[in-house]
Design a protein that fits this description.
Helix content is 65%, strand content 9%. It is mainly alpha-helical.
Length: 96
């Protein structure tokens, strides 16, 4: 008998990879637009091509939430999403 679901580990790795790709895409988009601010709603619309599918919207919102938690983005009370100084500096260094 198996005490683990077959393929569960593969599914978890795929989900983590998808989350990482979503975070990278969101961070690139926000940094590319910097210093122009963008609201979370505008960012979501732009990155999902105005899709109304829950999965598409949720992917962007989760990525923003995780990037905020990692100290790379900041969301103001007026819903503007801006990169932190550390994220901007990293972007500048990687562009050299």
């Amino acid at each position: 008998m198996h005490d683990k679901v077959i393929g569960a580990e593969d599914q978890r790795a795929t989900t983590l990879d998808d989350d990482d790709r979503a975070q990278a895409s969101v961070l690139r988009e926000v940094l590319w637009m910097y210093p122009e601010p963008i609201t979370l709603a505008e960012l979501t619309r732009e990155m999902t091509v105005a899709s109304d599918k829950f999965g598409d919207l949720d992917r962007i919102e989760r990525a923003v939430r995780d990037l905020i938690g990692n100290g790379l983005l900041y969301k103001r009370d007026d819903d503007l999403v801006i990169p932190t100084r550390a994220a901007v500096r990293l972007y500048v260094l990687f562009e050299l």
